[in-house]
Design a protein that fits this description.
The structure is a homodecamer. Chain A has helices at about 55-65, 70-85, and strands at about 10, 20-30, 35-45, 50-55, 90-100, 105-110. The first copy, chain A, has about 120 residues and is α+β, with helices and mostly antiparallel strands. Chain A is globular, with a radius of gyration of 15 Å.
Chain lengths: ~120, ~120, ~120, ~120, ~120, ~120, ~120, ~120, ~120, ~120
C-alpha cells in the first residue's frame, strides 16, 4: 500500500526558486484488472517551497506501490497528491512512463500549481 | 471496418486536468489505391473529461482497421472523431507516423479542442 | 526539369484544420557550378486547404529534379512556390537537408502563410 | 494462407558466390492462440545458387501471411522451407524479430545449408 | 517463490535445429541482503530439443521471482537449471542484465550444453 | 572545500550580449549522509557582463568540491552564487546532472537574473 | 589570419524571407594561451538580405583561422561580425561547439538582428 | 553507363599489407524494371596490391551509374569486377546497402580473393 | 591507497562455469604527473572459481583509489592482480575506459588465465 | 613535419602482456593534392614490449602532422612505422578514420606483428 508517511524532507538550501528533477526508472505496481505487474519510470519535477524531499525516502515511498493493484492514471495522481500535500511546493509535476501492454506504451502527466515565470525558459 | 463501439471507458480518477498519452506501434490498415498494407504508429494524447479510454479496448478498436482500405489522412481524422465523440475530452490529439512508401514517410496530426493553459509548458 | 504538372491532388477528408508531413529521403539534383550531384532530404509540412497532395505524384515531382542544375536555395524556394500555388494550403513549409560538401552540411527552410494558431503547440 | 507460388526468381548475375540480404520490417501474422495480430521483421540472408528471388514477389509472399494464424517458430521454419525449396540456394538464413508480447520480445533463427567458407569473415 | 511448474511447452515444429531467443525486460526480484528490489532483463537463448517453451508460461514463471530474496548469480543459474531440466534443449543460455546498484551494473551468463556447430556463425 | 578564489576572469570580447555554455562531465563530490562519492555533470550557461570565466580556473574551482561533503541541491546553488557574485553576468544558469543513487537519477537547475530577450529563441 | 575578403556572395533567389543553415564540422584554430590546436563545429544560421554566402568561399574563410591564435569567444564574435557586415542579413546566428579541454566542452552563441516573426515557430 | 576508364590509381605507399575502406553514401542508379531511381551506400574494402584507387576518380566512377538501369545484384558484382580487374588487389570486398523498396531494404556483398591471414583479427 | 583487504567474497552458487560482469562507471583516481583527477569506467569480467566477489565490497575497493596518484596502465594491472590473487578465478579480465585527456581517450585491457572453451561463443 | 623524436616512453608496469588503446579524435593534416585540410581520428592499439608511449608526447607527435601535405594511406603507415620502430611492441595497430571528401569517408588500418594468442578473444 502506498505509504506517504515514509517520505522525509530537509530544508531547502535557499529561498531563491530553483528546479529539482528526480527520475526513478525502477518502479513497479500491479494491474488491478489482470493481476500482472506493471513496470514504469516515475519522474518528479518541482520547485521547492520550504522543504526538499530526501532521496532515499522517495525511493522507499515508490517501493510501497510494489504489490498495490492500481491503474496508471491513479498512480500518477496519487503521487502528485501525496507529494504536493506533504511538501507544499511552488510547482510540481509527475510524469509516469509505462512499458508496453499489448503493444501500447503510455505516459501520464499530472501537475500541481503554476510553473513559476523564471522557469518558462528553463 | 473501424468499430468505435469496441471502445470502453472508465471514470477519470480526478477532476483536476491531467495529460494521458498512449502510443500504439502496431497499427496496420490497407492502402485503398494499391491494396498493399500500410504500417504505422498511432499516438493518442488527451486531457480527459469525465472518462478515460480503457487500454485493451483501445487496442481492439485499432485492430478493427486491419483490413480496411483507407488513406493516412482519413485514418487520422477518423480516430480523432471517434474518440472525441465517445469521450468528450478537454483536449485530444492524434498523431500517426507511417513507414515509407516509395521512399517517402509521413506524419499526420489532427486535434480536438484547445490545449488547456496548464499544459502549455508540459 | 522540375515538372509541377506531375503533381496530383485529392479532396481533403475534413474542413477541420490538420497537419500533414511528408519526408522524402531520396532526393538528388545537380550542382550548377561543379556538375556534381547533390543529395538531400525534402520535408513538406502543410495544413491543407481544399486539397491534399497525392503521395506518388509528389514522388514523381521530386524525381523531376534529378538531372536539373540548381542550387540548394533555389530548390527549396521552387518547391515551396510550386506546391503552394498548386494547392493553396493554409500553411506550408519546405525543409531541405543536404549532405556535406567540402565538410559543410546545409539546411534551408522556406514557408508560405502563417502557422494556424491551433498548431503552435503541435 | 502462405502462398509460395507468388515467389518469382531471376538468374543470378554471376556464378561467383556472393551474399544477399533482404530485410522486411512490415510483416504481420495472427497469433493462433489469442487471435491478436503479431508484428515482426523478417530478414532473409542467402548465397544464391542458379537464381535470386525477385523483390516485389518476396513482398507479396510475405503479405500472404497477413491473416494466417501461425506461431513465431512456425513462420520462421515455413519461410526457410518455402524459399530453400524454391530456389536451392548455397546457403540461406531466416531471422525473425517480433515485437513484445506481455513484456517479452523474441527472435527466431533458422538456416539451410552451410555458410560457404568465403563468407566466414563477411 | 520460483515456480518451474508454471512452465508449459509445445512440440518443436521441426527436427532441424534452429535458434530461439526471448528477452524479458520486466524482471524483478528482491536483494536478500538489503531487502531492496532488483530490476533486470532476462534473455533466454536456446536450440530446442523435442519441445519449445510457451511464451505466456515463461512470463508467469519469471513473475514467480517477484518477491523472492535471491542474488543475481543464483537467479541466473536457477533459471538455467529449471529450463534445461524441463525441456532438455540441445543448447541453452541465460543472460541477465541488472540495473545499477551503488553505481555498478552487472551481467551474468550461464549456459547448458555446447553451441551446435551450425550456430557458430549465427 | 569549494574555493571560489581559484576562479579567474578575462574581459568579454564585445559588449553585444552573447551566450556561453561550458559542460564539465568530470565532477565529483561526497554525499554528506553516506560518505559515498557522488558523480555528476555541471553545465554553466551565461550571458557575460564585463568578464568571462577562464576555462582552466573553472576546472580547478570544480575540482575543489572533490572531497567536500555536500548535497546535490547545495552544490548547485553554491556554484550559482559563487559565479554570479564573482562575475556579475547578465544571466546565468547552473544545471547539475547526477548519476543514479538507489535507482534514482537527479537534475537540479538554478538561475540568476532574467534571460535577455534576444536569447528567448536561442 | 581570418580573411573575410575570401567570402563570396550570390543574389538571394527570392525576396520572401527564408532560413539558411550551414554546419562546418571541420574547424580548427589555435589556443593563444597554450599553443595547442582547438577543434570545433561552426554553425551559421541566417535569413538573407539581398545576398547569400557561397559555400566554397565560406569553407575557405573558415580555413583561414587554421593557424590563428584566438579564444573560443573571439572566434564566435569575429565570424558574426565578418559575416553580418559583409552580407547585411535580416538575422544571423553563429553557434560554435568545441571539443573538450581538461574535461570541459563549450558552446558559444552570438547573434545579429532579431529573429523575424515568421521563424519563431520554425 | 558505368565507366571503369574513369578510375585512376597511385602506387601503394608500402608493400606491407594494409586495409583500406571507402564508404560512398551518395550512390544512385535506376531500377531497370520500374524506371524509378534507387539510392544506396557503396562500401569498398581492399588490401592493395601494387596500387591504390584515387578517391576523386572513385567518386566519378560511382557517378557514372547515375542514369544506368541496373539491378542491385548486378551493380555490386559489376563494381567488384571493374575494381579487381583494374587494380589486382590482394583482397577486395564490395558491400552495397539499399534504401527500402516496398518496405524491404537490401544489402549485397561480393568479394574477390581471400582475406589475408593478418586481417582475420582486424 | 588501494585497499584489497576491503574485498569480500561469497561461495559460488554452482561448480558449473558461468560468466559474471560488473561495470563501475564511477571510478576516479589522480594523475601522478599533473595532479589532476582521472575519471574512468572499470569493467570486471570473470568465471568464478570457488568464490564470487560481493558487490558492495567491490565498490568500496574501487573507491579506495580515489585519492591515489596512479597511471591508467598501473590501475588496470593492479586491479587484475588484487582480484585474481584474492579469488583465484578460472578466468578474469579488467577493462578500463578513461575519459579524454588533451583530446585523447584511452582503454586498457588486462587478463588472467585462459578463457574457458565454453565461453568462446559467449 | 612528422616529428617522431617528440615521442616519449615509460617502462611497462608488468611483463604480463596487456592491451592499450588510445583514440585521438583531433587529428588534422593537409591533402597534398588539393591543399585542403583533412580531419580524422587516429586509433593506436598495442601490446607493449618493454615500454609504453607517454600520452602527452603522443599528442604532440600527432600535432606535428598539422601542416604536412600527406595522403591518408601514408599517414597511417608512417605512424605505424614511427611507433613500432620507437617502442618495439609485441603487437601494434593503427586505425585512421577520415571525414568525408566529396561524399566519401575512409578508414585505413595498418598493423605490426601478430596479435598475441591471449588477445584473440579480447
Amino acid at each position: 500500500m502506498p505509504q506517504p508517511e515514509l517520505l522525509e524532507f530537509f530544508d531547502a538550501p535557499t529561498e531563491t526558486p530553483f528546479l529539482i528533477e528526480h527520475v526513478n526508472e525502477e518502479f513497479t505496481s500491479v494491474c488491478p484488472k489482470t493481476g500482472h505487474p506493471d513496470f514504469g519510470t516515475i519522474t518528479l519535477r518541482y520547485v521547492p517551497g520550504a522543504v526538499c524531499v530526501e532521496l532515499k525516502s522517495l525511493k522507499l515511498y515508490c517501493q510501497s506501490f510494489r504489490n498495490e493493484g492500481i491503474f496508471y492514471e491513479a498512480v500518477t495522481n496519487r503521487i502528485r497528491d501525496d507529494l504536493s500535500e506533504a511538501m507544499s511546493p511552488k510547482w510540481l509535476q509527475i510524469i509516469t512512463d509505462w512499458k508496453g501492454r499489448g503493444g501500447i506504451r503510455s505516459r501520464i502527466i499530472a501537475s500541481y500549481g503554476d510553473v513559476p515565470t523564471e522557469w518558462r525558459r528553463g
